[in-house]
Amino acid sequence: MTDLPHATTHHTHGSWSGAAPVCLLSYEERFLRRKRLHTADGTAFVVNLAQTTSLNDGDALELDDGTLVEVKAADEPLLKVSGENLAQLAWHIGNRHTPCQIGTDHVLILRDPVIRHMLEHLGANVAEVDAPFTPEGGAYGHGRTHSHEHGATAHAH
Questions:
Q1: SS3 for 88?
Q2: Residues 6+ apart with CB under 8 A from 7
Q3: Mean model confidence pLDDT for the chain
Q4: Is the terminal CB of the chain with fewer CB neighbours within 10 Å at N or C?
């Protein structure tokens, strides 16, 4: 991995501009510190950030030669949740610490048969969709809430 270009600098969405090769990553893949990645055209590079970082759609990674690589949220298998009682449904999703993306008339979550069953039991309309997933950040402005899957920790209040 040492012969590949390295990305050690992260630029947040809006802090950079211009055309850049794209690296498509899922929600889970966008939570990283050190990892070998590929641009959409197949160019390999190594991310080596100082700390584990939650990358967002539209962020960029800067390679050691100054090249920027744009991070894009990849399509993922999601559940689109809607219903007359959307606020109540969103509360139940949040109560289970399930990352969610909030729209004006729906909520998107990663496909989970247990959560789906609970939501349908509560009267939700649930549809399977494939779309980029960019969930809300934590209550105190942090990029991720705690999750059992990726081992991130909750922040003290």
A1: helix
A2: 45, 46, 47, 48, 49, 61, 62, 63, 64, 69
A3: 88
A4: C
